[in-house]
Amino acid sequence: MTRWFPAAILLALSGCATVSGEHVLTGTPGPAHDGAVKVVMEGAAEPVGYQEVGIVSATGVSTQATLVAVLGQLQAEAAKLGCDAVIHVRYDRGAESATGTGVAVRLQAEPAP
Questions:
Q1: Given 3-state DSSP classes, what are the helix, strand and coil percentages for the chain, each rounded to the nearest 5?
Q2: What average pLDDT score do residues 8-17 get?
Q3: Mean predicted confidence (pLDDT) in 10-25
Q4: The sheet that has 38-41: what strands, in order across it?
């Protein structure tokens, strides 16, 4: 009985690997955005015109503590708010978890030349 116990615990814990997200509104949300959501990392040039809607955050645990999983959750949270970009994105990785935060925005169309 003691041989299968550690394996059962590992299997149970691996099922707990998850990525979660949340947001705090700083503006007015719109209908959900169903297109691509652009990601602009902290320190990169930000878009010229945008409307801020909220602060989004995501946390990945265990196998979901990856850049791809965390950024994907940030994009999903922004899309729920009607946003098409997340700017000023910061990603932090620890031993068992990773977090990301950013500002969810609606990009403004650039005027035609």
A1: 25, 40, 35
A2: 45
A3: 71
A4: 19-25, 50-61, 97-107, 85-93, 38-41
Each residue's pLDDT tens digit, 51-89:
999 999 999 999 889 999 999 999 999 999 999 999 999
* Closest C-alpha among 107, 102, 110 to residue 51: 107
Give the number of domains in the chain.
1
- Residue 39 reports pLDDT greater than 50: yes
Question: Does residue 36 sit within a domain?
Answer: yes
CATH number of domain containing 96: 3.30.110
Q: Give the closest residue to 73 by CA, choosing from 98, 43, 109.
A: 98
pLDDT at residue 111 in the model: 60
3-class DSSP state of 13: helix
Tell me the pairing of strands 50-61 and 38-41: unpaired
State the DSSP string of 22-56. Answer: EEEESS---SPP-S--EEEETTSPPPSSEEEEEEE
